[in-house]
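TA notes. Do not distribute before section.
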Amino acid sequence: MKNEKPKRKRIINPASQPIQDPEAYIQNSCSDNAKHIKTFSEHIETEFWIDKHYSDRQLFGDENGKRDGIELEYIENLIAKSFKHLVYYALKHKRFIFVNYPPKAIVPVRIVLKEEFAKQEILNVVAEYHFVELNKYEVTIRTAMRKENFIASDGQFTVLLNDDESVLQLTQGKTANEIDRY
């Protein structure tokens, strides 16, 4: 066999692509016959807070000693990554509520956010989300720990993140039951 040169990449001429008629009625998620009018985006601001309990645990430890792996950089990253997943689950599942609204509840809704790391360690973060304004929310970290067998409270939801995927779980008794995946 002769030494064949690899084929060069073909450059696609944009002029050869079919032109999309902006006035055309095409298929979308709802209809086979719909016309796109406009795309808009809403900005949502989330204020990030930490509770003194978390701060003390992170700085000084507890009866089991100083807690490694619960530094703010890990927590902040988990909070940022999880927000879209929380909104997705809240819009899809009527029972899943993660935001507290005024007036202040005696027992606020708390969500457990989990992230699995390479060493099979799991970062567990207990967070409270509160409505401030239509496009502004507060999230406060109540506590955090790296613990493999952390059990959420009965009736509490957990979102386990692994890269860009997540699992929504509901704790019933001492068992975490899977509700959904994204």
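Switch to the second chain here.
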Amino acid sequence: MLINNCYASGNAFSNSTAGGLIGYCSSNWTNSVLINNSYATGTASADNECGLVGRISGDNITVENSYRLPTICDNFDHVGIVLTQDEMRTKSSFVGWDFYKIWYYIDGINNGYPILLLRISK
């Protein structure tokens, strides 16, 4: 399974596990999981586990070039490179991301964080 080029900005709260991007990810559902070029900016809060991904189960899960704000989780965090708000608003912070064809910044949109570039082909 591939989770690629996505982001979440909402808050997630749970008495079990919570993830800013994904609540629970298991490689038992599929042979492998790759989470790539993604980020979360909301707050994730849970009694047990939280983070960019709230809980990971299985061995074949890879997270690459994915980021989160430090407010995502205070007690646990499985994955996600921590960036400050200023770093999240800077292209050079996002290693390996395509800011020509996939991602874009627009002043005043999405709190200055990257957005997905919409291209419509005929």
